[in-house]
Design brief:
The chain is α/β, with parallel strands linked by helices. It has 2 domains: about 10-180, Flavin prenyltransferase-like (Rossmann fold, 3-Layer(aba) Sandwich), CATH 3.40.50; about 190-405, Rossmann fold, CATH 3.40.50. It has helices at about 20-30, 40-45, 50-55, 70-75, 75-80, 95-100, 105-115, 125-130, 135-145, 170-180, 215-225, 255-265, 305-310, 330-340, 380-405; strands spanning about 10-15, 35-40, 85-90, 120-125, 150, 155, 160-165, 190-195, 200-205, 205-210, 230-235, 245-250, 270-275, 280, 300-305, 320-325, 345-350, 360-370, 370-380. The radius of gyration is 23 Å and the shape is elongated. The chain binds cytidine-5'-monophosphate (C5P). Cytidine-5'-monophosphate binds near residues 273, 275, 306 and 322. Cytidine-5'-monophosphate binds next to α13 and β16. InterPro entries: CoaB-like_sf, CoaBC, DNA/pantothenate-metab_flavo_C, Flavin_trans-like, Flavoprotein. Pathway: Cofactor biosynthesis; coenzyme A biosynthesis; CoA from (R)-pantothenate: step 2/5; Cofactor biosynthesis; coenzyme A biosynthesis; CoA from (R)-pantothenate: step 3/5. Keywords: Decarboxylase, Flavoprotein, FMN, Ligase, Lyase, Magnesium, Metal-binding, Multifunctional enzyme.
Length: about 400
């Protein structure tokens, strides 16, 4: 039976172009067996009329706070009590701001104030609005209050810009809701994850680094968190917001990253190395800025620790996941790497030009584990992360079961 069977979900819809997607979400929730009622704000109704939602749900849509007839049928307090989960998709920046200060000046905000049910928000807005400190402060405040923030995803936006702010796709939200009612596939599991690049200083102003943006790692941290895991994200220097509910430790060099990881290994069940760790660092760091003198200059480099291989080689290692960026023979090289580093699961991708990988919003992955594999086609990194997180959870539980039998 679906985890959603007979669960009562109040779908809140606020103003934004993503409203058309919540009609599809409504259908998906109903098909999964949930009982759904819909409350729309006035702004939402300017994008799609309540009739669409009414036709899909077969029920009247709740729109008014002070309407005697509506209140007599099922009032806001009753709706607030009825729901097992309130899911607001899309939630606008404005609605989050109103929620964060506890306003109740329309039906949906009044329901949110009157409920004891969990509230999940699926933000959708222009990337600048999402990244604005005012919105981020509201997100933090709402997260601290226990509201669940699902998304947003990154990618092309209706306004023509690209970045964080897209509402999660209806299927991804359905996964979230299912995981919520199932208790989360990784509830009680501690995950340590590295992401981004590292910087290896040459002198006070220069360093060696690489093109890793950290997008895949951050998306995966968020996806694992959504499955209920306690996630510690050890991040190299990146320009990304910390995913909701994730504990972040910032580092610069590979050695700092290794130290941060080792300090987090106690009680760690799953380790995921997404970071593009610099393989070498300058043997010596000049104390002063190096002046240009000779036509040729030689830098002596020494090997950095292999953080992932070291974690996998520990006495009682966690379930280990690594990435392999290859330009050719992806599968063969990745399998070789998986065996050489003795890791449980490897996610490999081609990094040839125009095929995803570093700095892009999309990617495709080939997953390999002992005795199996899966090919994930080109898709948004946020969606890819959700698929990979689900596979990590499944393989982790398979290994734990094997160890216990
Ligand atoms: O050997 P290669 O760098 O291709 O392996 C990539 C995988 O190993 C990634 O999962 C990366 O996070 C991890 N790695 C690491 N420490 C290094 C190099 C790579 O954890 N020094």
């Amino acid at each position: 039976m679906s985890a959603l069977a007979n669960q009562k979900i109040l779908l809140g819809v606020t103003g934004g172009i993503a409203v058309y997607k919540s009609a599809m979400l409504l259908r998906a929730l109903l098909e999964a067996g949930a009982e759904v009622r819909v409350a729309m704000t006035a702004a939402a109704q300017t994008f799609v009329t309540p009739l669409t939602f009414q036709a899909l749900s077969g029920r009247p849509i709740h729109t008014e706070l002070l309407d005697p007839a509506a209140e007599a049928a099922m009032g806001h307090i009753e709706l607030a009590r009825w729901a097992d989960l309130i899911l607001i998709a899309p939630v606008s920046a404005d609605f989050m701001a109103r929620l964060s200060v506890g306003m109740a000046n329309d039906l949906l905000s009044a329901i949110c104030l009157a409920t004891t049910a969990p509230i999940a928000l699926a933000p959708a807005m222009n990337r600048q609005m999402w990244l604005n400190p005012a919105t981020q402060e509201n997100v933090q405040r709402l997260t601290a209050r226990g509201l669940l923030i699902w998304g947003p995803a990154e990618g092309v936006q209706a306004c023509g810009e690209s970045g964080p702010g897209r509402m999660l796709e209806p299927e991804a939200l359905l996964d979230q809701v299912s995981a919520h009612f199932a208790g989360g596939a990784l509830a009680g599991v501690k995950v340590v994850l590295t992401a981004g690049s590292t910087r290896e200083p040459i002198d006070p102003v220069r360093f060696i680094s690489n093109r890793s943006s950290g997008k895949m790692g951050f998306a995966l941290a968020a996806a694992l968190r959504r499955l209920g895991a306690e996630v510690v994200l050890v991040a190299g220097p990146v320009a990304l917001a910390t995913p909701a509910g994730v504990q972040r430790i910032d580092v610069e060099t590979a050695q700092e990253m290794q130290l941060a990881v080792s300090e987090q290994l106690a009680g760690c069940d799953i380790f995921v190395g997404v970071a593009a760790v610099a393989d070498y660092r300058p043997r010596e760091i000049a104390q002063q800025k190096i002046k240009k003198q000779q036509t040729v200059m030689t830098l002596e480099l020494e090997r950095n620790p292999d953080i992932l291989a070291d974690v996998a080689a520990a006495e009682d290692p966690p379930f280990t996941v690594g990435f392999a960026a290859e330009t050719q023979n992806v599968k063969a090289y990745a399998e070789e790497k998986r065996r050489a580093k003795r890791i449980d699961l490897i996610a490999a991708n081609r990094v040839a030009a125009a095929e995803g990988g570093f700095e892009r919003d999309e990617n495709a992955l080939t997953l390999l584990w002992e005795g199996g594999g899966e090919s994930l086609p080109m898709m948004l990194k946020s969606e890819l992360a959700a698929r990979l997180a689900a596979r990590i959870a499944e393989r982790y539980h398979a290994r734990t079961q094997q160890e216990n039998s």
